[in-house]
Amino acid sequence: MKIERLSQDKIRIFLTFEDLSERGIQKEDMWKEIPKVHELFSEMMDQAYSELGFDATGTLAVEVFSLPAQGMVVIVTRSKGYHAEDDLDDDDDLYEVEVTLDQSEWVIFAFKDFEDVIGAAKKVVNHLPESNGGSLYAYKNHYFLQFDPKAFEEGPLKTIIAMLSEFGDSSAVTPAVLSEYGKTVMTEHAIQTLCEHF
C-alpha cells in the first residue's frame, strides 16, 4: 500500500492486488458494503494519519479506480472548510463517506530512466499488436508508457504487464494527468519507434 499527498485535503492510495488478497478481499468486493472493506478503509486512514498527518474526520469523498492487472487507486478528499478544532466538542470521531467507483481501462508503467524504457520496449515489441504501440510521457522525473488494453487479448496483456514489471512499476497516474501535466514524448507507436532508433 502506497500513500501520497496530492494537496492539503486530498490523498491518493495505491493498492496492489496482493494488498487486497492478503486481507481476503477480491477486486469485486471493493464495490460491496462488507466488514473487510470497512477494515481496509480504516487501516488506510490510520496509515494516512501516521505517514502524512492526514486527519480523516469530517466528510470524505472517496473515489475508487480499478486498474487492469495492477490494482486499485483510492483518492480520498476531505471536505473544504474542515478544521480539526470543529470536532473538539464532539465525542463522535466518525467520518461520513461518499464513494464513487470507476474503472480505468489503461495500463500505465513508470520508469526511472530512459534506459529502462528502451529495455522494456525491446522486451515487449514482438508481443504487441501493430495497432497498439503505446504512448510515452515524461512526468515528475519519470518516463511513463501508456497502453490501451482494449487492443490486447487477455493472455498477451498479462504477459506484457509481466515483462514491463521487470523494468518499471505499474503506476496509479491517470491518462488525464499525463496528458495535462506531463510532456508528450511519443503519442503513438512508442515501442516500435524506440526499437527502431535505439
UniProtKB/TrEMBL annotation:
Pfam families assigned to the protein according to its UniProt record, in alphabetical order:
MecA
Q: Which Gene3D superfamilies match?
A: 3.30.70.1950
> By its UniProt entry, which InterPro entries does this protein fall under?
MecA_C_sf, Neg-reg_MecA
Spans through the membrane:
none
Please give the family membership noted in the entry. Belongs to the MecA family.
Q: State the name under which the record lists this protein.
A: Genetic competence negative regulator
Organism of origin = Marinicrinis sediminis
